[in-house]
Amino acid sequence: MSFKISNQNIIFNTRTSKIENTIFLNILTKVNSDLKETIILESKEFKKLDSQDIIEALNGLMTKYISYSFIDEYDKNTFSQFPHISYFSKIDDVFYITIPPMIVNAFKKNSIESFLSLKTFFYFRQKSSHNFFNLVLKNSSENINLVLSIEELKNIFNVKEEAYDRFFDFEKALLKPLVENINSYSNYTLMYKDKKRRI
Length: 199
What we know:
The chain is an alpha+beta fold. Helices cover 41% and strands 19% of the residues.
């Protein structure tokens, strides 16, 4: 199935905590293997977390939202918003967790969520990563060349203009890890070069 869309945008309203992110990544691993909306987690799967830690993390994931929007080929504007998890129940030390269908669809071929690269965003915690990847998606086509100044990059990464005086430091701390993440978790391969250095 092919989708003709434009102006796609994916937003995570609040960054997950470290524990919430650990739980969510575990959930995603199970979703990826089973493609079901209900998954089972056991407390013993987490060495350093007890049941109460998991309950607090799941409560947090129910209050943090993901949204996507796009314009389709008929010029209709679509917007969807959903939490990281819909709800959960616990029997002894076993958690039964229900995931919104949009998250499951992100792992299925021929779904709009897969086409939007929604899955890739799950593996980025930083807002700057989301902003940069949204920029890539909005300009996506084969062999696209984006020319961005260091000031534009700093704006995307939400760092002060006076921070990272040397490009080397900016590259090491922010740019390289982001490009590696995008290349690892998406269907895109990004390469960049510093025009001054002619890499």
